[in-house]
Amino acid sequence: MRVLAALSGGVDSAVAAARAVDAGHEVVGVHMALSRTRDQFRTGSRGCCSIEDAGDARRAADVLGIPYYVWDLSERFEETVVADFLAEYAAGRTPNPCVRCNEHIKFATLLDKALALGFDAVCTGHYARVVERPDGTRELHRARDAAKDQSYVLAVMGPERLARSLFPLGDVASKEETRREAAARGLSVSAKPDSYDICFVADGDTQGFLRDRLGSRPGEVVDASGEVVGTHDGAYAYTVGQRRGLALGRPAPDGRPRYVLRVEPVANRVVVGSADELVVDRVHADRAVWYDEAPADAEVEVQVRAHGAPVPAVVEAADADRVRVRLTQPLRGVAPGQSLVVYAGTRVLGQATVTASERATSPARATA
Amino acid sequence: MLPGAARVLADELTRTGNPSSLHASGRAARRVVEEARERLAAALGARPSEVLWTSGGTEADNLAIKGMFWARRTQDPARRRILVSAVEHHAVLDPAFWMAEHAGAELVLLPVDHEGVVDLDALRAELEAHGEHAALLSVMWANNEVGTLQPLAEVVALARRHGVPVHADAVQAVGQVPVDFAASGLDALTVSGHKVGGPGGTGALLARRGLELTPVLHGGGQERGVRSGTLDAALLASFAVAVDEAVATRETVAPRLAALRDELVAGVRAIDPTAVLRGPADPARRLPANAHLTFPGCEGDSLLYLLDSAGVEASTGSACQAGVPRPSHVLLAMGVDEDTARGALRFSLGRTSTREDVTALLDALPAVLDRARAAGLAGRATAGSGVA
């Protein structure tokens, strides 16, 4: 196959590309430039996401002996991922930009362009497994290494795009194995630190980024009874379940810590309460993507955070667009805007975007 | 690399000796360096004493912009304006921008017409209004992207009236068109080794005797104290041979490449009538070996990939350090819009280029353009799935 290997400049994508070469594919490396500042004349201090990353990607391509290109997808990235990130926070929700990037950039713009240029598939360094069924259709599964598993952020791509994707790292036992393999292959990025932050928030200061782009909007922090207990600089900067960063004037009557229960963007109000008040056991989500038929009345596992543990649940209702699940094991703090990914064991059944959550049954002990 | 230049390089590399040393091997090395200086000067119509060795075209351009600015402003503090054409190579533009940001210079970008030719009326108006404040003027001999030859005789005549020294980056011109430093009336001129089939890491600034230049590199005082640094006899000997050979064979090579280029352009336009040749329509006013075309609806990077897969090596123009293709500042200055500029492709023919190479390109082009147009649409804002 002709395979386009997305090279971020990190160790995972480099080893993934190397494995695609080993598998006998005709591989071309592409580094996506996702952010920039527009400046017609200057070569100095350009806003390429990171010149170091692009250089590392090029070096990896050279070591693998594959052609290397940089594709400027920054305009599209700004229009989709960054704009969505800001709009979601502004609307009081908590977006996951990596999910949106997979949805709009990696497995959309990049993949579409690759297919148009005559490639058969796109290869990335994501940790997830693809299992082919006898009829040729594919299933998306969790990676062998549960600690690195990225099926949660990939689920959004859907079955058609999965059919055009390669994840050669789904079977590695651990990140250490990937690093050892990179070193053995002479890839200089073998010891490069992992990236955790949001790539377009360069200094990791998400709050500062939001304040810069959305402006300061002071408002009130209230408790469930509506009593004002503090102030904030912009309700958008808060996320359900958040405890730190709440500048509350006085302690709760019961002296227990308070958490963000709800963000009300129109009223520009943040509602806080106790940990118990965060507990939910029913989640509503829309913009569903299913790999097969929408599951109904099925016992499943769901995950609502990129680094959260899956919990048992029952799909109460599901159609092509929406899904409602009841959590057999209640959760604390499910933020609207996050992805709800539905699993049967290691297999991804589908995903949707959380719109609301509630407590349907009497209070029980919850896990965070 | 030209075979003669490679041979000289290999021969000289086995010798030792610092040309600045006084012992026998130093003297031998010095002789090699000075013979190279004489050879290069003779090939370019300069005096040997006018040759300042540098590490390449970029350093020579930096020395010209910074050195001429500082020297001229020291003589006359009112002269702070740096005049450069808007289509200069980054090795000229960026030092000029840097001087404006960090050294108190005022930068004046001279506009060009739709063929990339510097606007002489604008230059005349600028000099008449602010000529006594101009420190220097830099206009390239030939543009590296679209191949436009600049009207340097007129530029020099205008500048001279106002006492403004003129530099030209001639990196693209040497070996392609006649370059005679003395006849040009220029005060400084940049040449580079690797563009003429010489070794990388070599270049020179030809600086008219009497032109004041403030050093940029300080140290041991080599090169009249203007450019310090130990000289590499082997590299310089090879560089001079390459320039000599490129100039000596120009009269036979250039017409052959121009004919091939015309064939290439005609062939491309027969395949795609929407393709537009950028730069002067008149072949006599552009570099013989350059063809620069824009293909509507195509992204340059798609074309590059598809042609490369078909065994044709082209270039989109210029790339930043990270290799991000951007709309060329040259095309934008010529009035080309950003979307059109993204579909630019530059074909450079070399001494080894043949008719078969052109045929191979033309054979591959129809399929390449089809694919690139499909991909161009996929890459645009309308693409993707399920965008909320």
Describe what you observe in this structure.
The complex is a heterodimer of chains A (368) and B (388). By secondary structure, chain A is of the alpha/beta class. Chain A has three domains: 2-191, HUPs (Rossmann fold), CATH 3.40.50; 216-274, SH3 type barrels (Roll), CATH 2.30.30.280; 277-358, Translation factors (Elongation Factor Tu (Ef-tu), domain 3). Chain A is built from eight helices and 17 strands. The longest helix of chain A is centred in the first third of the chain and has 20 residues, at 97-116. The N and C termini of chain A lie far apart (45 Å). In chain A, 46% of the residues are buried. With 388 residues, chain B is of the alpha/beta class. Chain B has two domains: 3-248, 3-Layer(aba) Sandwich (Aspartate Aminotransferase, domain 2); 251-378, Aspartate Aminotransferase, domain 1, CATH 3.90.1150.10. In chain B, α7 (181-184) links the parallel β5 (166-169) and β6 (188-192). In chain B, α2 (24-43) packs parallel to α8. Mean pLDDT of chain B is 92; it is low at 381-388. The interface between A and B is large, with 41 and 38 residues.
Offer a few descriptive terms.
heterodimer; A: 368 residues; alpha/beta; Rossmann fold; SH3 type barrels; Elongation Factor Tu (Ef-tu), domain 3; 3 domains; six-stranded antiparallel β-barrel; 8 helices; 25% helix; B: 388 residues; Aspartate Aminotransferase, domain 2; Aspartate Aminotransferase, domain 1; three-stranded antiparallel β-sheet; 13 helices; 12% strand; globular
Largest sheet of chain A: 6 strands, antiparallel, barrel
> Could you give the order of strands across the largest sheet of chain B?
1-7-6-5-4-2-3
Helix amount of chain B, in percent? 40-55%
Helical content class of chain A = 10-25%
Which chains share the greatest interface? A-B, 41 and 38 residues
**Radius of gyration of chain A from CA coordinates:** 22 Å
Low-confidence spans of chain B: 381-388
Number of strands of chain B: 10
User: Can you tell me the CATH topology of the largest domain in chain B?
Assistant: Aspartate Aminotransferase, domain 2
Any idea what the shape of chain B is? globular
- Supply the CATH superfamily name of the largest domain in chain A: HUPs
Mean pLDDT of chain B: 92
Q: Roughly how many Å apart are the termini of chain A?
A: 45 Å
Total count of domains of chain B = 2
Please tally the β strands of chain A and state the result. Answer: 17
Tell me the structural class of chain A. Answer: alpha/beta
| CATH homologous superfamily grouping of the largest domain in chain B | Type I PLP-dependent aspartate aminotransferase-like (Major domain)
Q: Which class of the largest domain in chain B in CATH terms?
A: Alpha Beta
Q: Provide the CATH architecture of the largest domain in chain B.
A: 3-Layer(aba) Sandwich
- H/E series of chain A: EHEHEHHEEEHHEHHEEEEEEEEEE
